[in-house]
Amino acid sequence: MAGLTLSHLYKRYENSGKKKKTVNDFAVKDLNLECEQGEFVAFLGPSGCGKTTTLRMIAGLEDITDGDIYIGDRRVNDLHPKDRHIGLAFEDYAMYPPLTVYDNVAFNLRAKGVDKAEIDRRVREIAPLMQIDDLLDKMPVKLSGGQKQRVNIARAIIREPELLLMDEPLSHLDGKARQAMRTEIKRMIHKIKCTTVYVTHDQLEAMSLADKIAVINFGVLQQYGTPAEVYDDPVNEFVASFIGDPPMNILETTTVKIDNDFFFTFQDSDLKIAVPKRYYSVVSDGFRCKMGVRPMDVLVGGADSQGTPEKITTFENLGDERRIGISVGESLLMLITADETRYRAGDIIKLEVRGDKTHLFDLETGARIKEK
Ligand SMILES: Nc1ncnc2c1ncn2[C@@H]1O[C@H](COP(=O)(O)OP(=O)(O)OP(=O)(O)O)[C@@H](O)[C@H]1O
């Protein structure tokens, strides 16, 4: 049984006050997605791509322009949010300041008339899961951002929802707290096994937490797959460049035939990269497209390397990795290396590109060109 199904989902905002939208603009366009019972799905995309709108439609906080939403096998289009059996954890903590953590966590159950002993049992069951046992008597004002977020999630899951919806729950936290909370969410989700939709614009968060990632741009689902699928097998240039840090190098190229082999060549650069044989069925002499390769698939060749000598334009030492930038025409080709040599701008290195890891994209549409 699917945990969540979105079928041909559309959202169009009518012209409304300050937001400059026209009636023809869809915030969400023909979104189709199926999430299995117990799966953790991340909605990932840049600001304004429609992630929150989709989440709010699932929650029943926003009207649907067209399409259907099923939670389990229930069509919930016309159900009130409180009847959808969902738990919500949004980026603002929305706690009641005059109430203790215990009372905040218990609040929704009390409102539903659940009896006192049952409420106490559930609060005490969830508190260790979210590591808030020691905080139950505290007032919200005394909590750190990470603690508030744990309480916030506890409040969402105490209702034993069929579906947990989280909107950028870590966005208020700084670097370290964010990383720690990410690990905690992973541990907690693993335990409660609740179907979860998690909105984020942070690809690292999506990659590390999710079973599946829905990459969205301009209201349109670009790709839906496991983290490995969207990383290794992106369907287009947008997904390829959005996933990964630093992002995939994407360079305009013309393939040329020399003797019986093809090479990627680049404007205003003498760099030549051998085209892998698997692409010979799609390239030709003078064929133009974009070539993508991840920074870790560009290597610094040793002394006996056959790689092309290239001059280093930028060098950053980040401790456990080094990032080298090579100018290729107007673009910068980035590579990541564990090589401990302290390079400097102007040094010459031999560049080797792992041809088997290159991707080709259509110059106009950005769609992936696959070997035939
Ligand atoms: N109430 C509204 N009225 C009109 N347009 C809206 C409204 N809410 C959102 N939009 C528009 O719908 C589009 C999608 O917004 P949404 O908030 O879903 O994006 P998002 O991907 O969640 O972005 P962010 O990460 O910044 O929250 C945007 O163009 C936004 O301006």
Describe this structure in words.
This is ABC transporter ATP-binding protein. GO terms for molecular function: ABC-type transporter activity; ATP binding; ATP hydrolysis activity. One of its GO terms (cellular component) is ATP-binding cassette (ABC) transporter complex, substrate-binding subunit-containing. Pfam families: ABC_tran. Keywords: ATP-binding, Nucleotide-binding, Transport. The protein is α+β, with helices and mostly antiparallel strands. The protein folds into two domains: 2-242, P-loop containing nucleotide triphosphate hydrolases (Rossmann fold, 3-Layer(aba) Sandwich), CATH 3.40.50.300; 249-369, OB fold (Dihydrolipoamide Acetyltransferase, E2P), CATH 2.40.50. It contains eight helices and 21 strands. The chain has helices at 51-59, 101-111, 116-129, 145-157, 175-192, 203-209, 227-232, 237-242; strands at 2-12, 26-36, 40-44, 66-71, 74-75, 86-89, 163-167, 195-200, 212-217, 220-225, 249-258, 261-265, 272-274, 287-293, 298-301, 308-317, 322-328, 331-337, 348-353, 359-361, 368-369. The strands form four sheets. Strands 6-7-8-3-9-10 form a six-stranded mixed β-sheet, with helices on both faces. The site of adenosine-5'-triphosphate has 14 residues, from helix 1.
What is the CATH architecture descriptor of the largest domain? 3-Layer(aba) Sandwich
Q: Mean of the pLDDT scores? A: 91
User: What is the CATH fold-level name of the largest domain?
Assistant: Rossmann fold
Beginning-to-end CA distance, first to last residue: 36 Å
Order of helices and strands: EEEHEEEHHHEHEHEEHHEEEEEEEEEEE
User: Total number of helical segments?
Assistant: 8
The structural class is alpha+beta
Strand order of the largest sheet: 6-7-8-3-9-10
Count of DSSP strands: 21
What fraction strand?
Answer: 25-35%
